[in-house]
Design a protein that fits this description.
Length: 404
């Protein structure tokens, strides 16, 4: 839903109902992860994608029906020998997609959810997507943690308000004590939010954790991961642009005020004039650096690189540390870091020279190679051409989480 936030905000603010189709579960080589969304507007416009084109045609018709009736639907799409190219998935995977009508009447909390997403505050929406009683489908609760973690909200967003709004309790009307059932669901949903994950929770119709019957999809919107670029050079501008395109909250830092200006880096959330090692130490002490943080050290000057890398490599591993420079510069850098007391296992965390071997030369081409290495590191990719690999194209979420 994050990629549809602007269009959703416009429609919701105007009181215009839309059909929101959301991937809630996948199996095997499905093209999109849970949380991917598509809108069908009252004017017949389609915004977003849930499968890269495989099932959007069928979903368009479903969305029009849901807009008309207001009744949510859970659709399942897989390979169909007879109809694979019209409504099936030719990739061999399976998708479950929940389609619901969204407007200020059906989803009064949406404005707050979108505001949290825009401000970089963590928020989750827990929605009943399947239930023996069809009238209970579409019930939801909005959750917010009391203590948001590091991310873009660290750059100035305010703290969240009410931790829980909406309500799932009406979904439990089969003899279970509503408050206990809702507590179990909200506890489990909050755990997914804290982990930054979206997924399905299953309960009995009475709200017990064991046994099928009803399914609740938790869509988590955690703050964007951070990318910090050290070195305000022309390559940094290209890396900042592609980093923002990938969804990172981008900071550019350089000690030289003549180069570190907002005008030179329009895609960065902030541009900081400070010595790199001092800035990184400050951010670590403030709790704004974690295992998902990406560092790109592009200065290739020892007086900047060595101190900031000493800081980056001390403590728990970060998501990615890439360093620009020739092979000779890399060897000299390793020697200096070794003399500074860093161990071999710490130095192995460096991606240096930075990027994958794409043969690029321009800043834009170099940024693509850096982004490709970051994605491969995060998702467990090999960096090889797909034609040289065997097995599923899309890796499982478990692999991605281990790498990320």
């Amino acid at each position: 839903m994050r990629e549809l936030a602007s269009r959703l905000r416009d429609a919701w603010g105007a009181g215009e109902p839309v059909a929101l189709a959301t991937v809630v579960s996948t199996f095997r080589s499905a093209p999109r992860d849970p949380g991917a969304s598509m809108l069908v507007t009252a004017q017949g416009e389609v915004v977003g994608s849930v499968s890269g084109g495989c099932v959007e045609g069928a979903l368009y018709e479903t969305g029009r029906e849901v807009l008309e009736t207001g009744a949510p639907r859970l659709e399942r799409y897989g390979v169909s020998d007879d109809d694979a190219f019209s409504v099936g998935l030719t990739c061999g995977g399976t998708l479950e997609i929940f389609v619901e009508r969204v407007s200020p009447r059906e989803f009064p909390e949406l404005g707050g959810v979108l505001a949290d997403m825009e401000a970089g505050r963590p928020v989750a929406v827990a929605t009943v997507v399947d239930h023996p009683d069809a009238a209970q489908r579409g019930r939801r609760a909005v959750l917010r943690p009391e203590d948001p973690g590091p991310g873009c909200e660290a750059l100035g967003a305010s703290s969240p308000g009410n931790p829980v709004s909406g309500g799932l309790a009406p979904a439990f009307s089969f003899g279970w004590e509503d408050e206990r059932a809702e507590h179990a669901v909200l506890q489990d949903a909050r755990a997914l939010l804290e982990a930054g994950r979206s997924g399905i929770l299953e309960y009995s119709p009475a709200g017990e954790r064991q046994g099928p019957g009803q399914r609740i999809f938790v869509s988590s919107f955690a703050p964007r991961d951070r990318m910090i670029i050290f070195g305000a050079i022309d390559f940094a501008a290209a890396v900042a642009e592609i980093g923002a395109f990938l969804g990172y909250c981008v900071t550019v830092c350089d000690a030289r005020p003549v180069f570190a200006t907002a005008e030179r880096f329009p895609h960065a959330e902030e541009v900081v004039v400070q010595w790199p090692d001092e800035y990184l130490r400050q951010e670590k002490e403030a709790g704004r650096i974690d295992g998902s943080t990406v560092l790109c050290v592009l200065t290739h000057e020892a007086k900047f690189d060595v101190p900031v890398l000493q800081e980056a490599l001390s403590g728990p591993p970060l998501g990615y540390i890439g360093v620009m420079g020739s092979r000779r510069t890399h060897e000299e850098r390793l020697r200096r870091l070794g003399e500074a007391g860093l161990r071999e296992e710490q130095l192995e965390r460096l991606s240096s020279p930075i990027g994958l071997d794409l043969g690029g030369r321009t800043p834009a081409e170099t940024a693509v190679s850096i982004a490709a290495e970051i994605v491969a590191s995060r998702r467990g990719g090999s960096g090889l051409p797909l034609r040289e690999r065997h097995g599923p194209i899309h890796r499982s979420a478990e692999v991605s989480e281990l790498k990320g």
